[in-house]
Every structure is written in structure tokens, then in C-alpha cells.
Amino acid sequence: MNQNFALKTLGFFTPSAIQSKLAIRKGRNKLKIGDFANAMIDFDEAIELNPTGYLAYYFRGNAKLSLNDLKGAILDYSKSISYKPSFAEAYLNRGNAYFLLKQFPEALKELDKSIELDPSSLAYCYRGNTKCELHDLEGALKDYSNAINLDEFDTISLYNRGNVRLQMDDPRGALQDYNSAIKLDPQFALAYVGRGNAKISLGSQTGAEIDWKKAERLHIKAEERVFKEVI
After folding, report:
1. Alpha carbon of 123 to those of 54, 146, 207: distances in Å?
2. 108-126 burial string, b = 16+ CB within 10 Å, else e?
3. Taking a C-beta distance cutoff of 8 angstroms, is the pair 23, 49 a contact?
4. d(CA 229, CA 174)
5. pLDDT tens, residue by residue, 29-65
6. Greater confidence, 225 or 89?
7. Range name among 14-23, 66-75, 144-153, 200-209 with the lowest pLDDT average
8. What's the chain's Rg over C-alpha atoms?
9. What is the spatial distance between Cα 181 and Cα 179, in angstroms, rounded to a whole number?
10. Closest Cα partner for 193 from 177, 225, 216, 222?
11. What SS3 string covers 13-80?
12. Does pTM top 0.85 for this prediction?
């Protein structure tokens, strides 16, 4: 065996590389329980141990995104991409950060790249949201449809497509989407609001009021649940 090749291969298993992976694992577990600040400490440690590890930057970006440090998240996603240019999830989340900063053209570029690398339902949904903000309703409609084709249980894209269809004066199409979203998730309050809007457009005042009242009850229940968890 070529000695240089052996040394390069073994480099992946150095003590610092192993410790870096363990720190990432600890940080990811903290992300799952919402402990974002302490998760960042673990990712900082992972980066110190392995400064070229793309995953540590990516997950630290996720922690910063959750803490609303959007510009910091973008910097970390950019660093992750610099070490792995084919990392679709980093483009996806960097696009989301730009979206939240209301930098929609920048978000669109990131999501285009994410879809080029990995056409996921979430990426299409995010790009549909971005196109809505850019007043490209036809483009948004296509993206939500692509998202649904990839994931038939994607209630968010069904709801969003219903909203777009309603804006495009297609209340019957919107009604179908809201019905599908509610069938999949009967507790989806916003889908009842949308369905009520579609029904009023179709001349059903009574049906609209029933849906709006249902949405209000679900919203109140959700608020009560949060209040009980807080106290």
C-alpha cells in the first residue's frame, strides 16, 4: 500500500477529528431539545478541533437561525458551502435566512441552487414562498405543485397553493387544496381560514362562517395548550 495514501486515509480518524464528530453529535442533540445556545458551544468546539469540517458550520448556522441571528447563520452556511459546494441543505437554509431578512432575490438564487442539487419538497415550498413575495404567482403555483408531487402529505404546500389559487381567482381549485390539507391535518387552523375565504368567494356565507369559527376554536385551544405548558 502506498504510504502517503495510507496516511491521508488515517487522517480522517485522528483523535481531533473523532472528538470533533462527538462534539457535533452533542450539539445536534441539544438542537433537538431547543437548547440552541449550548448547542453553539459544542459546534464551536467541533470547529476548533476541525476547522475545515463543513457539518459543524452548517449545524452552528442552524442554531444561529433558531436564535434569529440571521446574518451569523448566513456566514456559517457560506463557510459550510466553501468546504462542500454540493451541500444542498446549506443552500436551502441560507436561502431561508435571506428570505427572513426579506432579501428575496438573494433567497431565490440560493433555492435555485438547492433544487439543482437536490429537488426536495421543502426546497420547492421555500422557493414558492419566495416567488409569492416577488409577485410571481404562476411560478409559485408550479413550485408548490412540485413540492406536493414529491410529498403528497405536504400540508403546508397544499395550504400555500390554495392561497395562490385564491389570489389567481380560482376559488374552486383553492377549495380542493384546503380540503386536502384539512383531511391530512384536521387541526390545521389556517386551512379552515383559507377554506372559509374560498367558500365566501363561491357565495357560501354560512359555510365560510362555520370554517372561520372552527379556526377560531382551534386557535384558542392552541393558545390554551401553550399557556398550560408555560405555567
Report:
1. 20, 10, 34
2. bbbbebbbebeebbbbbbb
3. yes
4. 35
5. 999 999 999 999 999 999 999 999 999 999 999 999 9
6. 89
7. 14-23
8. 22
9. 5
10. 216
11. HCHHHHHHHHHHHHHHHHHHCCCHHHHHHHHHHHHHHCCCCHHHHHHHHHHHHHCCCHHHHHHHHHHH
12. yes
181: its cell numbers: 390539507
Q: Is the pLDDT of residue 182 over 50?
A: yes
What residues have CB less than 8 Å from 86, skipping those under 6 apart?
A: 117
> Distance between CA 19 and CA 29 in Å, rounded?
15
CA 41, CA 60: separation in Å to the nearest integer?
9
Set of cell numbers at residue 205: 356565507
Alpha helices (runs of H) in the chain, residue ranges in sequence order:
3-10, 15-32, 36-49, 54-66, 70-83, 88-100, 104-117, 121-133, 137-150, 155-167, 171-184, 189-201, 205-230
